[in-house]
Every structure is written in C-alpha cells, then in structure tokens.
C-alpha cells in the first residue's frame, strides 16, 4: 500500500511540475505578445500613396514633414520608393480594405467603414476636431479661375459660396468656409463650361453641380476629374473655366490664377479594420512614409 501511495504521489508531483512548466510557457508567450507588436498584424507595412500631382499627396507630405527642403531651398518629396501608388481616392480605399498590412491616406469626406481612420497625435479624424484645430492633417479645397469669371462660371461660383452651396459642402461631410453665407439668387446665365482637376474635390463638386443646375437649368457644366496640378494647368491654358485643387495654390499658379477656398477638409490616415493600432504620432507617420519604419512590429 505504501508503495502504491508513494507511486501515486510521485505521479502527481510529476504532473504538477509538467503543468507548471506549461503554465510558465503560456505566461511567457502572453507577456511576449503584450510587449510586442500590438497592431493585430505583423510583417512589412504596405505603404499606399497618391500619384505625383495629387493635391492630397501634396498636402499630406507637407503637413507630415515627408516633404523637406534641400540645401538649395528646393522642396523634395521623400516618399519611399517602395510605396504603392494609387491614382484615385477609391483606389486607396480598395487597396487598404483588401490588405491587412496596408496604410494609406484619403480625404476625410471620403471615409467609409471599409477602412479605419487612426488618431493622429491623440486626435480623432473628425469634422469637429478639424474645425477646432486639434486634428492637424487638414487642407483647403480650392477653386481657381483665370481672370474675372463671367456668365455661368461667375454664377456657379456665387452659388458655391452661398448659403445653399455651403450647405451642400457640410451635407457631404466637409467643412464650410462660411457659416453665415447669404442666400443664392441665380442671374440666369446660360451656356456650357468645363470644371476640372482634383479627384478629392470632385465628389463634392459633383453634388454642387447637381444642386446648382436645379436652380439654374439653363447652365451646363462638364466635370472632368484628374488631379490638382492638371486642374491648375488646365485653367491656365483655358481648358477649364474653373479648376479644382485639394491644396493651396503654388506660387507660379497663384501668379496667373485667382484661388478661392470653398471648403476645408481633413486628411484621414487609414488602416485595415483588422489592424488594432488606433493612434499614430505625426513622427511615426512620417517614418512610415519615408521608409524609416517598415514593419508593424516596430510601432509597438
């Protein structure tokens, strides 16, 4: 009997020892996960950027410090050569939504539930935070004309800046530049004009055109979507009566064109919904986009 009890006790002690080792291993693993990558994903970051000429890219690289001046005072875009280039907002959304390791940036007004916007330096990407100035990634939506606008162009611009036009801006999740604008009365201008440029401004411009044509059916407006730089060059050469830019006008553009802000927009930094990272600093965002931070594990 004593031998049987001794054998049983030995077996129990061995089981406890093995269990203790297993518990220790589980705890170590848990501690390792807690101190490691907390993004919910691992591996190389897929960086999604916009194309050259994009106003969203221009504003983003300036605001994050990805663009810097060299010794000659020239602005240099230091976006990593490994970045995947998307030529439209919709392409950025699709790319990030389909890749758990991706990060991109889009107009705040274009944000939807296929992606997740992260906080930047603790501030959420919201209209209220852009208005308050606590969310730092924001830029104006500008239109530009060459010379004094006349006819349909003048009437349409007056509509955009009116109470009704600014209501269209806010209804589409952008920020009005004038909360106390006067009501609009069309002068009845007729004819056709072309409006062209930024793919970020284009969605709200489409809504503005629809609303304006309901007030003035005599007008015909052709909307052409490309990028901010093309919008400005097209306005300078007479292709467009009104150009669109999702950034400030450059010095050489401002010398030939008259720019007018029609809305304010935030730039949302977006990741895949599977990514549990909720907040990035401006320095971290810059590090990702210049290629200094290349793995999600480096952000723990």
TrEMBL record:
InterPro entries membership: PBP_domain (IPR024370), Phosphate_ABC_transporter (IPR050811)
Residue stretches making up the PBP domain: 38-164, 185-298
Disordered: annotated span: 23-42
A Pfam entry, by short name: PBP_like_2
Signal sequence coordinates: 1-19
The family this protein is said to belong to: Belongs to the PstS family.
Name this polypeptide is given: Phosphate-binding protein PstS 2
Origin species: Butyricicoccus faecihominis
Lineage, highest ranks first: Bacteria, Bacillati, Bacillota, Clostridia, Eubacteriales
Gene coding for it: pstS2
